[in-house]
Design a protein that fits this description.
Blueprint: E1 7-12, E2 15-20, H1 26-31, E3 40-47, E4 51-52, E5 55-64, H2 66-83, E6 88-94, E7 96-99, E8 103-111, H3 114-131, E9 134-140, E10 146-150, E11 158-159
Helix pairs in contact: 2-3
Length: 168
């Protein structure tokens, strides 16, 4: 899988998306959507939790086909921005290892009023999880190893026998 060494981004008028291997910066994502025309800014921060389906998780690892994932993210951003009359939208997804309590995705939206910002932010997140070409490895504690799966809520993954044998 092609992965950016630091970060890659795409942008359009008041829409910015990025993939990065670096720790995510909340202030940077919010600053991209602030505007004197916006009375509301909503931020979603998805973090790595320490369990899935009752099993301890030691960390998550995200992989992506970056060129396609960025195009999909920008298409989602443009669509949601138009549908909810957002002032701006910014989305960044972290790739590589994401430790417990650290952010894997940040989505910030701004709008003249809070209802549009809430709805737009939630829709952007759900579409990202449904459509963006990002996969995650849930690494469990003990002898269980890891499970690769599409980046969807609550869907069970496929057990990985050996990460060295290839996982894509």
């Amino acid at each position: 899988m092609a992965e950016p060494s630091h970060f890659e981004e795409l942008r359009d008028v008041n829409a910015w998306v990025s993939l990065t291997n670096s720790k995510l910066e909340i202030a940077s994502v919010i600053s991209r959507v602030k505007s004197p025309k916006a009375g509301a800014v909503v931020l979603f921060a998805g973090t790595t939790r320490d369990n899935f389906d009752g099993k301890p998780v030691t960390h998550l690892e995200y992989s992506s086909y970056a060129p396609l994932a960025l195009k999909t993210m920008l298409s989602i951003a443009q669509s949601v921005k138009e549908k909810h009359a957002l002032t701006a939208i910014s989305m960044v997804h972290r790739l590589g290892v994401v430790p417990i309590e650290e952010e894997s995705i940040l989505i910030a939206v701004s709008a003249p009023h809070r209802q549009a910002a809430w709805k737009g932010g939630e829709e952007a997140l759900e579409l990202c999880k449904e459509k963006v070409e990002v996969w995650k490895l849930e690494e469990f504690g003990g002898d269980e190893g890891g499970v690769w799966r599409a980046n969807r809520d609550g869907k069970r993954g496929v057990q990985v026998e050996s990460l060295d044998a290839g996982h894509h």
